[in-house]
Amino acid sequence: MKLKTLTRNLTLWVLLAIVAGALLGHFQPATAVKMEFLGKRFIDVVKMFINPIIFLTITLGISTMGDLKKVGRIGGKALLYFEIVTTLALAIGVGVAALVRPGAGVAVGKLSATAADEYTKRAGQFSWWHFLADNLTLQVLLLSILLGIGLSKYAGRKPIIHFLKEASTYVFRGLHLVMLFAPIGAFGGMALTIGKYGIATLLPLGKLMITVYLTMAVFIFLVLGAILRYCRVSMWAFLKYLKAELLIVLGTSSSEAGLPGLMEKLEGMGCAQPVVGLVVPTGYSFNLDGTTIYLSLATLFLAQVFHVDLSGTQVLTMMGILMVTSKGAAGVAGSGFVVLASTLTALKVIPVEGLALLLGVDRFMSEARSITNFIGNGVATVFLAHTEGALDHEMAAEALGKRLRPLRLRRNITSGEYLGEVAEEAAP
Hints:
- The chain is an all-alpha fold.
- It has one domain: Sodium:dicarboxylate symporter (Proton glutamate symport protein, Orthogonal Bundle), CATH 1.10.3860.10.
- The protein has 21 helices and 2 strands.
- It has a two-stranded antiparallel sheet.
- Strand 1 and strand 2 form a beta hairpin.
- The N and C termini lie close together (about 10 Å).
């Protein structure tokens, strides 16, 4: 690999930054914890692009689609798909927990009675009204749909659409500049994780950690992989295509950090713009496969730790509760613990203070959740685009079938369509 290619390879730099952050966290934990601001600031800046990208992508997609019935059909199919797949993820989590029993033999030790208080209080404050009212992404999604429908019926829409396409071009240019700083954000996030919690914290709950990661790997390659195979897409090729975004999600423990890049890459592999615009942002609130698996595993883990034998009815009740509460996870800070606390509170048979056991390792499992959520939303978009006849398979084969040097997609300023990669040929 040439030196010029190495210096321009974002994936390589993000990977090196993750390793550097882990080393700093291990050898200089006090210094590493101070790097938290690097990860947080990077995520904050990326989040600034999320809503403008959603707004422009959906508005342009719907206003130029013409067939409004198709928009409604895509939305309805997306919600049905989310419910089926997340329910399957929930069932897999419950099945693995019952089979492996990761909580068996774990010593409770001296749990702090107040360690979980913060999450218990916030769980009691959670409501669907607040989730919908405070979730800006869902509000932008709704506004974009309404504006897109309005523009599609407006005869004088051409100048407005041209302006929005110009704005879209500059927004993505700005995003590309910000992503050059992804290694810094990944470094800060990984340094914080290792520096604050340390590898040693994993040992007492190692069985749970391994179970979580293996379960999510099985879900990704068997369940999501089968869905992609139905769409004539290889999971390995898909993951390789998204490798830079996956490393960013891994380093920052935030699937939102990869959302703008995911939307762009999905369009770049031939998924129609309206499908990407509707499915991805909605999925970030309603299609949290990784979070669902974690919540089911964590709930049964705590039941096993406290020797609580849940009856079949109680397990089904827990699954019913999680089917609802997990959908609100994206709208709450510290969502995993808040939703878990609300589930334990509703069940009334597992001590809520057991959450203190998970505090030290949750950050490490957060990476598995985020990556699974990220991949799950990408797969959902490909599936829905395929079933709607809105996936360009030739474009997908070209994007996924080559080991591309830094993939840099450009848009036609007047049409907003992707023209393919800039200049560089595929690596041999």
